[in-house]
Amino acid sequence: MTKIRTRIAPSPTGDPHVGTAYIALFNRAFAKSQGGEFILRIEDTDQTRSTPESEAAILKSLAWLGLDWDEGPDKGGKYGPYRQSERKAMYGDYARQLVDNGHAFHCFCTAERLDAMRAERQAEGLAGYDGLCMHLDPSEVTTRLNAGEASVIRMKVPEEGVCKLEDELRGTIEIDWKQIDMQVLLKSDGMPTYHLACVVDDHLMEISHVLRGEEWISSTPKQLLLYQYFGWQPPVFCHLPLLRNADKSKLSKRKNPTSIDYYRSVGILPEALINFLGMMGWTMPNGEEKFAQAQMIDNFDHKRISLGGPVFDPEKLDWLNGRYIREDLSPEQLMQRLLEWKFNADYVSSFLPLVQQRIERLSDAAPLAMFFFQGVPNLTPESFESVKQDEEELKKTLQLVLWKLETQRHWEKDNIMADIKAVAEHQGLKMRDLMAPLFIAITGSPASVSVLDAMSILGPDLTRGRLRHAIEILGGLGKKKLKSLEKEFQQMAEFLD
């Protein structure tokens, strides 16, 4: 039997996402149920966004959930290195091999030319690159390269016919080649794009099966074509249904908390969260909803994955987490979990100096510090009555602050302050008038310890979650309002840049 090797390849360009854990769980369950190996590979070819901190957060979150890997950047293995940034040299060799064999070409088009070309083709109902540089004379290409002119390498794509993709869950999928762009494979800085790096790495690491989200179906023909060009056997593909919001839209942080760190911060147990993700489109043969990862592996059959969009329901997660707390933990074990969660000296010490400045009795400390242990404060629309803004302006202000904080990569008090100040200036608000609703949204009270210090201590995920909660309590923002506000935020961001 072919040795099963599946992989999860999270990009370290954002918060550790529950969607990443969902894909990782199904890859690991499949690999282990077949006696195979589960590989972790870091796709960090976008050097402007990838950071050591974001990679560390991914590794920490997956390990917390019990999604152990057999090989990876921290463990090594005979197929390493396991960071694509450390494999850069080899991708260039493979890209040039494709050029030499007539399957790819150098493209010298400028960004301005590409923008104009896309606009023109969109007006004609066409998509993708128009193939201009594919027809350059080889001698001209050599001359321009020798002169040091910048270029990318693009793959050639058939102009007619269809690509037939065999999917383990969906059977044969046909995609017209006219819908497939002449993908950039190697950027001008020598870094590969996702498709080249993914195909090369999966081949060299002997990946036999790829389980990934269904959003990748439309681009799979590019990868199959690369396998064909290289003369390699492609892996078996299995595209999993996407996690959905309650309205069936793709799970996103604008409608649901999506960070693993958020759920850890509000007190969700790792075994409950991994169980919940396992329920997304798959059930135990006996129908039991509460099961351990080991039980999932023992009973796993990928053919039983449902293609209906699984709904990520936080209330169902709370219900399941409650079962684990009540049924699986003794009082002593619950105490230990609480200590590991937030009832510990390190965490309490982070905010105790703030509390100390505002109390006269020891009994004053508990109510003042309570919000540091909450998921979200208990708010009502009346909680914001003291704020000197009408409701629509208030929601707009909170939304702009939320979006601005979502772009913050270095969560420190001074940076948080700068983001809030930028929104205040844009809104024409005095800082005290903007800080007033933030106090309520974050602490649940119009007066508390320093809200900037509190946000710094609570961290980005819980802070953003509380801002989303406050906006929902105030009635939320409709689709049309959000769309117009997004344009305004983009303009604000461009002005600040």
Question: How would you describe the overall organization of this protein?
Answer:
The chain is mainly alpha-helical. The chain is 47% helix and 8% strand. It has helices at residues 18-33, 52-64, 88-100, 111-123, 138-146, 194-204, 220-230, 260-265, 270-278, 293-299, 314-328, 331-341, 345-356, 365-369, 391-406, 413-427, 431-443, 451-458, 460-473, 479-496, and strands at 5-8, 37-40, 104-107, 152-155, 162-167, 171-176, 184-186, 209-213, 236-240. The chain has a three-stranded antiparallel β-sheet with strand order 3-4-7. Helix 9 packs across helix 11 (314-328) and helix 15 packs antiparallel against helix 19 (460-473). The longest helix has 18 residues, at 479-496. The chain is globular. The termini are far apart. The mean pLDDT is 93.
Strand order within the widest sheet? 3-4-7
**What portion of residues is helical?**
40-55%
User: In what range is the share of β-strand residues?
Assistant: 5-15%
Q: Quote the distance from N terminus to C terminus.
A: 56 Å
> Major sheet, described briefly?
3 strands, antiparallel
The helix/strand series, from N terminus to C terminus, equals EHEHHEHHEEEEHEHEHHHHHHHHHHHHH
Mean pLDDT: 93
Total strand count, please? 9
Structural class: mainly alpha
Radius of gyration: 26 Å
Count of helices?
A: 20
In short:
With 497 residues, the protein is mainly alpha-helical. The protein has helices spanning 18-33, 52-64, 88-100, 111-123, 138-146, 194-204, 220-230, 260-265, 270-278, 293-299, 314-328, 331-341, 345-356, 365-369, 391-406, 413-427, 431-443, 451-458, 460-473, 479-496; strands at 5-8, 37-40, 104-107, 152-155, 162-167, 171-176, 184-186, 209-213, 236-240. The strands form four sheets. A three-stranded antiparallel β-sheet has the order 3-4-7. A two-stranded parallel ribbon has the order 1-2.
